[in-house]
Amino acid sequence: MSPGQSSADGPARDPHCLFCSIVEGEVPAQVVATSEHAIAFRDLNPQAPTHVLVIPRHHAATAAETAAAGGLDAVVSLAVQVAKDEELEQGYRMVFNTGPDAGQSVFHTHLHLLGGRQLAWPPG
Ligand code: 5GP
Ligand code: ZN
User: SS3 of 34, please?
Assistant: First the structure.
């Protein structure tokens, strides 16, 4: 069984999930890269010159759930490819906001890929 596709993890798609609708092409998005198990598209409200969201095609609410299903490698690997495509050799940040205290607002696992400017640390 391929990564992130375990039937024990629940259905691949949540009919009420915005990012599942983007995976299905029902909600438009500016897609920049795809792979067998992940898809990358520009954030609607970018916080840096490059702000791309990378998500697993298989629905899971958080990065912790996707990790448990073995699906994170596909997400991180596609993010690395997008960072190369966007020529972010000066550096970039990958962030998984996970849960309410982290400000997660969409409960379909997503990696924020941010770059193209100096990024402050610590984050807010
Ligand atoms: P979170 O706050 O959950 O870590 O990040 C959710 C991100 O999804 C936010 O940065 C927000 O701008 C982005 N977002 C929310 N709705 C949409 C949408 O319909 N399309 C796209 N491309 N991004 C969205
Ligand atoms: Zn979803």
Answer: strand
